[in-house]
Amino acid sequence: MAEDLPPQDSKLTRSKRDWAESGKFLTGRVARSDSERLPPGQHLVKNWPVLDLGRQPDIGLHRWKMAVDGLVERPLSLNWDGFLTLPHEERVSDIHCVTTWSRYDNRWKGVSTRALLDLVEPRDEAVAVMLHGYDGYTTNLPLSDFAAADALLVREWEGKPLTREHGGPVRLVVPHLYFWKSAKWIARIELIGRDKPGFWEVNGYHMRGDPWAEERYS
Ligand SMILES: Nc1nc2c(c(=O)[nH]1)N[C@H]1C(S)=C(S)[C@@H](COP(=O)(O)O)O[C@H]1N2
Ligand SMILES: [Mo]
């Protein structure tokens, strides 16, 4: 009976145990040798290209909000002050865009997706996440990928506030998947019971998007 289950057997603790056992998200610069660092078909760039649908919403911090809802025990709506009170972390990771550019060593600061999931408590039925941007963009990914150890809701890049063109005030960064999964201008994180395609996925992009497996198109 569900009532009798110890808290150790929640969806998230089970998932964390699985993640730890499989060592699944030891991606990026830490775990890969130099020769394996650049995924197949990618080339390195030094600049940081801007790619989006052509609408770059201007969300003032005073009206910025981010919801985390769907299949969770405790839905959350954060304003900017609320976001700032969450524990922040710094991570350095690489970007791999499906249009074949990669950019190494980006220093991010933000809130880890795991910290956020701890707050909302995903229900057992939650298997995937739909991300909604203020520009109307959507993208989907499996919950386990969203919860990768190095995935962050980023508000700073290289020590400065994330610029509007790159998705500020807050964007997602999931380093081990192609960058289209990293939604800019994030407005809503929706936990769902069945993976379903977002904007580019409807248009033929891959449901998961692992750069090392070249999961570009489906
Ligand atoms: N909200 C939103 N997020 C988005 C997009 C978008 O159009 N809207 N484009 C995606 C794509 S296709 C890419 S490659 C990256 C580009 O991020 P950048 O402009 O910071 O390089 O953002 C992703 N996240
Ligand atoms: Mo992209």
For the sheet with most strands, the description reads: 6 strands, mixed
Taken in chain order, the helices and strands follow as: HHEEEHEEHEEHEEEEH
CATH architecture term: Alpha-Beta Complex
Averaged pLDDT: 91
Radius of gyration: 17 Å
The residue fraction in helices comes out at: 10-25%
Low-confidence stretches: 1-6
Distance between the termini: 40 Å
Q: Give the DSSP E fraction (strand runs of 2 or more residues).
A: 25-35%
Number of domains: 1
CATH superfamily: Oxidoreductase, molybdopterin-binding domain
The general outline is globular
Small molecules in complex: ligand MTE, molybdenum atom
Quaternary structure of the protein: single chain
InterPro entries: OxRdtase_Mopterin-bd_dom, OxRdtase_Mopterin-bd_sf
Organism: Sphingomonas xinjiangensis
Pfam families: Oxidored_molyb (PF00174)
Protein name: DMSO/TMAO reductase YedYZ molybdopterin-dependent catalytic subunit
Short note summarizing the structure:
The chain has 218 residues and is an alpha+beta fold. The protein has helices spanning 11-22, 34-37, 80-85, 113-120, 143-146, 199-202, and strands at 43-44, 65-70, 76-79, 89-96, 101-112, 128-133, 138-142, 152-157, 160-161, 171-173, 186-192. The structure holds the ligand Nc1nc2c(c(=O)[nH]1)N[C@H]1C(S)=C(S)[C@@H](COP(=O)(O)O)O[C@H]1N2 and molybdenum atom.
